[in-house]
Specification:
- This protein is of the alpha/beta class.
- Among the domains are: 25 residues, no CATH class; 37 residues, no CATH class; 156 residues, Glucose Oxidase, domain 1 (3-Layer(bba) Sandwich).
- It has 21 helices and 17 strands.
- The strands form four sheets. It has an eight-stranded mixed beta sheet with strand order 10-11-15-14-13-12-16-17.
- A hairpin with a 4-residue loop joins strand 16 and strand 17.
C-alpha cells in the first residue's frame, strides 16, 4: 500500500492507493489537534485565543495538522548548537506542506557536561517526549537529536505515544586536525591523554589539541554511540534515507531538515506511526548494520530498550548471531582510521547498506512510505578504503560479541574489532577497584600490585550502583605500566564504555555488582579467564568459595535519597534488558487527555 498527499482542501488532504484505486484515509476532523482547535466550548475558545496571542491567525492553524518540533538545543550541548537554525528549516518544510509547526524544547543530554552520565536521563527524556506529545494538540512530531542518548530516548518516547514521528539526526561534526594529524573526538582525546600521562606529550600540547579536536557543531565524527545510533535510526526507517551520514554544517543537512518537515506532514495524513516502522525485520536489519559499521557497545542496550517499547523481544543472543554473519566494513575510528566526513563522501550509510543488502530484509518499511530496498536502490560506494568490500573487510567478523560465564551469567559485551588480538584469549589475576573513586585514588600508585597480565576490575558502576551506568569501563592503564610501553590490558566492569573508545574491555557485566552479581564477589588475586572465541568470561574460583562469599555479601544502599536518582535506582532493569525503567516496559496503550 502506497500513500501520498492528494488534495488541498481543508477537510480532506490524504489519499491512499490500495487495491487499484485511491481512497480517502484521514480527514481534518480526525486529527487530535482538531479536538483542541474546533471545540465549541470554553476549552476550544482558550486554545484558539492563546494561539492567536502568539501572532497566528485562523488561516495559519485551523484545518492543518499540528507538527511538533522537539528540539534538544542547549548551550550545554554544543553538538546541537546548529539546531536553532535547523528548527527554522524544519518549520519551513512544515509550512510548505500545509502543516502548522510548533517548536517545543525538550531535555538536552549533552554528553560532555552531565555527570555522572547522561544514561540516567535517557528514560527521563523518553518520558518527557511521550508526555509532551500526550498533553498537547500535536498530530505528529519531528524529533531533533543526535548526541548519544537523545536518539534512543526520543524514539522510545515517540514509540510509546505512537503518533506519527520522524527523527532528524544532528549529523557528525567536521574532522579534527592537529599538527598534521586527523583527530576523532573521544578516540584521539583518549589516546593523547594516555600519551600525556606517559610523558610522551606535554600538558601544554594536550591543551592546544582542545582547540582542534571538535571544531564545528555536530556529534562525534567517529563511529561512537552518536553516529551508531543515528545510523540505526535510519536503518529502522525513522529518518529520511541518507539523513544520518550528512555532516552537521553541510548545506545538504539544511536541505534534509526542510524535507523532514515536509515529510512529517505527509506522515500525519498517511497515519504512519512508529509501530508501523519499528518491526521485527527493521530491528534485525539494524543489528546487522551495527555489525557492519563496527558500532558502539552502547547500541546493544539501546536497541533492546527501543524494541521493548514496541513489544518486540530482542536478546543479546540476537547480536551475537549477527556478529558471525557480517564483517566490519566501515573503516572508521575507533576500529579503523577514517572519520564520518570521509564516510559521507564515500557513499554514507546507503552505500554501506548496498554492500550488505543480500543479508537485509529489504521489505522493511520506512517513514517516506517506501521500503528499505527502495531507499538504497542505486546507492554507490565511491571509496573502497572507507567502506570496504565484503571480500576485503576491515575485520573478518562483526565488531561486537556477547560473553557469558559465572562472572556474567546474563551476559557482557566486548568490542573485539577495537581490542588487542593477543588479549582476546587471556588469563590473569584480578586487581579490584570498588568504585570510581577507589580506582582514581589507586590506579597510578607505584605500589599497586599490577602487571601487564593483570585484569583490571571495576565494580559498583552499573545502572543501580552509581546509579546510571556511566562510561567508566575503559579504566586507564596504570601509569607505571604506560611507562613500560603497555597500551592495553584486559578490563572488566559493570560500567559502559564510550563508543569512541578502544581496548580489550568487557562491559555491561550482568547482573551488576550492586544487584548481587558475581562481580561483587571478586577479590584481588582471583584468576579471571577471557576467551572471546568461546564467548567465555569466567571467575576461576570454585563454587563453594563463591557461595561463602555470597552469604557474607551485603547489598549497598541506594546512593540517592530523593528525586529522580532514587526512582531510577529502584526501578531500573539490568543491561541485558535494556537498562530501562521497569514501569516503561512493553507496548503501551496510548492514553489520550480526557476532554
Amino acid at each position: 500500500m502506497r500513500c501520498r498527499v492528494t488534495a488541498r482542501s481543508r477537510r480532506v488532504r490524504q489519499g491512499c492507493y490500495a487495491d487499484g484505486e485511491w481512497t480517502v484515509q484521514k480527514k481534518y476532523e480526525d486529527l487530535r489537534s482538531a479536538r483542541w482547535y474546533e471545540g465549541k466550548d470554553r476549552y476550544g475558545f482558550v486554545t484558539r485565543e492563546r494561539t492567536k496571542q502568539a501572532g497566528f491567525t485562523d488561516e495559519d492553524f485551523r484545518g492543518k495538522p499540528v507538527i511538533g518540533i522537539f528540539s534538544t538545543w542547549s548551550d550545554l550541548n554544543p553538538c546541537h548548537h546548529h539546531f536553532r537554525n535547523r528548527a527554522e528549516e524544519v518549520k519551513r518544510g512544515i509550512w510548505e506542506a500545509g502543516g502548522f509547526p510548533v517548536e517545543v524544547p525538550v531535555m538536552s543530554l549533552g554528553e560532555a557536561f552531565m555527570r555522572p552520565t547522561t544514561m540516567i536521563y535517557r528514560d527521563l527524556l523518553s518520558i518527557q517526549v511521550e508526555e509532551m506529545l500526550r498533553c498537547h494538540p500535536i498530530d505528529g512530531v519531528v524529533l531533533m537529536g543526535g548526541c548519544d542518548k537523545t536518539t534512543p530516548a526520543m524514539i522510545m518516547g515517540a514509540a510509546s505515544m505512537n503518533l506519527p514521528a520522524i527523527f532528524m539526526p544532528a549529523g557528525p561534526m567536521l574532522t579534527g586536525r592537529w599538527r598534521g594529524r586527523t583527530l576523532g573526538s573521544g578516540t584521539d582525546s583518549t589516546f593523547f591523554y594516555q600519551e600525556m600521562r606517559a610523558g610522551r606529550i606535554t600538558e601544554a600540547q594536550y591543551h592546544d589539541m582542545e582547540y582542534s579536536a571538535a571544531r564545528s557543531p555536530g556529534h562525534c565524527m567517529t563511529m561512537g554511540t552518536a553516529s551508531t545510533m543515528t545510523s540505526i535510526a535510519e536503518v529502522l526507517g525513522m529518518t529520511l534515507p541518507g539523513a544520518a551520514s550528512i555532516p552537521a554544517v553541510d548545506s545538504r543537512h539544511a536541505h534534509m531538515a526542510s524535507r523532514t518537515g515536509r515529510l512529517a506532514v505527509e506522515m500525519v495524513w498517511n497515519d504512519i506511526k512508529p509501530t508501523d516502522l519499528l518491526t521485527r525485520d527493521a530491528f534485525e536489519n539494524a543489528i546487522l548494520a551495527l555489525m557492519a559499521l563496527g558500532g558502539s557497545t552502547n547500541a546493544l542496550i539501546h536497541l533492546v530498550a527501543m524494541a521493548d517499547r514496541v513489544g518486540i523481544d530482542i536478546s543479546l543472543k540476537d547480536f551475537d548471531k549477527a556478529s558471525e554473519r557480517l564483517p566490519v566494513l566501515a573503516d572508521i575510528k575507533p576500529n579503523g582510521k577514517h572519520l564520518m566526513e570521509d564516510f559521507f563522501y564515500a557513499g554514507g550509510l546507503r552505500g554501506l547498506l548496498s554492500r550488505i543488502k543480500g543479508e537485509l530484509k529489504l521489505d522493511a518499511p520506512s517513514a517516506n512510505g517506501k521500503t528499505l530496498g527502495d531507499n538504497i536502490e542505486g546507492a554507490e560506494v565511491f571509496d573502497d578504503a572507507v567502506i570496504r568490500k565484503l571480500d576485503d573487510p576491515l575485520f573478518p567478523r562483526g565488531g561486537l560479541v556477547v560473553l557469558y560465564g559465572n562472572l556474567a551469567p546474563d551476559g557482557a559485551v566486548l568490542k573485539r574489532s577495537a581490542a588487542t588480538p593477543a588479549l582476546l584469549t587471556h588469563k590473569g589475576k584480578a586487581v579490584v577497584f570498588d568504585s570510581i573513586e577507589d580506582m582514581k585514588a589507586r590506579v597510578d600508585d607505584p605500589d599497586l600490585e599490577v602487571d601487564a597480565n593483570s585484569v583490571l576490575v571495576l565494580r559498583g558502576s552499573g545502572a543501580r550502583g552509581v546509579p546510571g551506568m556511566p562510561e567508566w569501563g575503559m579504566m586507564p592503564i596504570p601509569k607505571k605500566l604506560l611507562a613500560q610501553g603497555v597500551t592495553d590490558m584486559v578490563r572488566v566492569s559493570d560500567a559502559r564504555m564510550s563508543g569512541t573508545h578502544f581496548g580489550t574491555v568487557a562491559l555491561h557485566v550482568a547482573p551488576e555488582s550492586a544487584a548481587g552479581g558475581t562481580l561483587a564477589l571478586v577479590r584481588d588475586g582471583d584468576l579471571i579467564e577471557l576467551d572471546v572465541d568461546k564467548r567465555r568470561l569466567q571467575l576461576l574460583v570454585d563454587d563453594a568459595e563463591l557461595a561463602a562469599r555470597r552469604a557474607a555479601w551485603v547489598p549497598p544502599p541506594i546512593r540517592h535519597e530523593r528525586g529522580w536518582g532514587k526512582l531510577y535506582a529502584e526501578r531500573v532493569r539490568q543491561p541485558d534488558e535494556g537498562s530501562g525503567l521497569d514501569f516503561l516496559a512493553g507496548l503501551a496503550r496510548r492514553d489520550e487527555p480526557r476532554f
